[in-house]
Write a structure and sequence with these properties.
By secondary structure, this protein is α+β, with helices and mostly antiparallel strands. Helix content is 38%, strand content 18%. The chain has 14 helices and 13 strands. The longest helix has 16 residues. It starts with 8 loop residues before the first helix and ends in a 16-residue tail after the last helix.
């Protein structure tokens, strides 16, 4: 629509509300959002003239004005009258000076609507709902995932969780030397001529807070992407100190032999600190996840491929999902601050649970001084 919004966004909203369990009557209002606009433009020229340039542009793609017969039909539709009222409320809400109750004021009203609706629908219908998900992945996000092989989601974690990520990580750092459950990696830092901590693995076996998030909202999101339950495959925190090394271009799939483990995985990056180009952020080759395994040596992708990498800029608490076949890399941390990032990987539950088996294999890798099964780490691991 010439860069002005998303076509059929009213259906995206309708689908979202229905999967939450919102009543059909309430969801219908969202579904009729565009139809109400077309109706008002058809019967009220002043309303049509009052639309913003962007809204006038999208009107052309949304079917433009209605026929006289359709207008007559809608005029006799009592349910549509509620949609018209709501559309007018929306227009009034665009006034930046209007005083409205806070969002929390409406929370119980929405919850009551969902609760009452679930009481009145059949068990078969209830089974099709994503009941009270902590985060709902929309159809637009699913399309972006399919196209790019990656998806950035903001505000999936609660405000409380986002504020605690750094503390949870520091609590782990404090016990790295005396907790045998953790796999701990160091790298030699030329910045201060000493070994520094660069990775902590199996953090969900030690931290209840990390376990709750990884086995809760994050796993739920991945399950929605898979359209079936997901299970935890592995988990780690990468710590990049000033001058900390990055990773060569690689695909995670090369480290996960499908004869040993699941055939497909989804990794989720959780930004514990802000991530940007200066401090060595994740870089992904969007859309290159459907081409199988690229030529590589010990997991490092051949330089003969002309990948167009995109920096993934992330703020604290943002999560980034990416396909195990998506080529990616990261650079050196050229900033003066540490940059910490969690990576949590999942596979379909239907393929089995491999967490313990993976880490048995990883323990053998550690004996040879490598930080990864792939030889993709640019630094000197210890």
């Amino acid at each position: 629509m010439e860069g002005c919004g998303t076509l059929n966004h009213e259906l995206v909203g309708y689908e979202f509300l229905k999967k939450l369990g919102v009543s059909e009557q309430a969801a219908y209002i969202a579904k009729s959002h565009v139809l109400a606009k077309r109706y008002l433009c058809s019967v009220d020229p002043e309303y049509a003239d009052s639309l913003s340039p962007q809204s006038q542009t999208t009107l052309k793609y949304q079917g433009n004005l209605l026929s006289d017969d359709y207008i007559s039909q809608l005029q006799n539709d009592k349910q549509f009258q509620n949609a018209l009222r709501f559309r007018k409320y929306e227009e009034q809400a665009k006034d930046p000076h209007i005083i409205c109750p806070p969002i929390a004021h409406y929370y119980n009203l929405i919850l009551d609507n969902i609760t009452n609706n679930l009481k009145n629908i059949s068990p078969k219908e209830t089974g099709n709902l994503t009941q009270y998900p902590q985060y709902h992945v929309s159809s637009e996000q699913l399309k972006a995932w399919d196209s790019d092989g990656a998806l950035v989601i903001k505000n999936a974690l609660s405000k409380e969780h986002r504020s605690e990520l750094s503390k949870w990580t520091q609590d782990l750092i404090n016990v790295t030397e005396n907790n045998p459950k953790l796999l701990v990696h160091h790298e030699y830092s030329s910045t201060n001529n000493q070994d520094i901590l660069c990775r902590i693995e199996k953090m969900t076996t030690v931290s209840k807070d990390w376990a709750n998030v990884c086995q809760g909202v994050i796993r739920d999101i991945v399950s929605q992407i898979y359209n079936e339950p997901a299970v935890l495959f592995k988990d780690k925190i990468n710590l990049k100190g000033p001058g900390g090394a990055g990773f060569y271009t690689h695909q995670d799939a090369t480290a996960y032999n499908p004869q040993e483990f699941a055939k497909h995985h989804i990794s989720v990056m959780v930004a514990i600190d802000s991530s940007n180009a200066q401090n060595g952020c994740l870089q992904i080759a969007k859309g290159r996840h459907k081409e199988g395994i690229f030529d590589n040596k010990d997991g490092v992708t051949s330089e003969k491929y002309n990948f167009d990498f995109t920096n993934v800029i992330a703020e604290i608490g943002d999560i980034v999902l990416f396909d195990s076949y998506l080529p990616h890399k990261s650079g050196t941390n050229f900033s003066d601050l540490w940059r910490k990032t969690a990576y949590v990987t999942y596979n379909r539950m239907s393929e089995g649970q491999f967490y313990d088996k993976y880490y048995q294999k990883k323990a053998n890798v550690l004996k040879h001084g490598n930080i990864s099964i792939n030889h993709d780490f640019m630094g000197k691991a210890h």
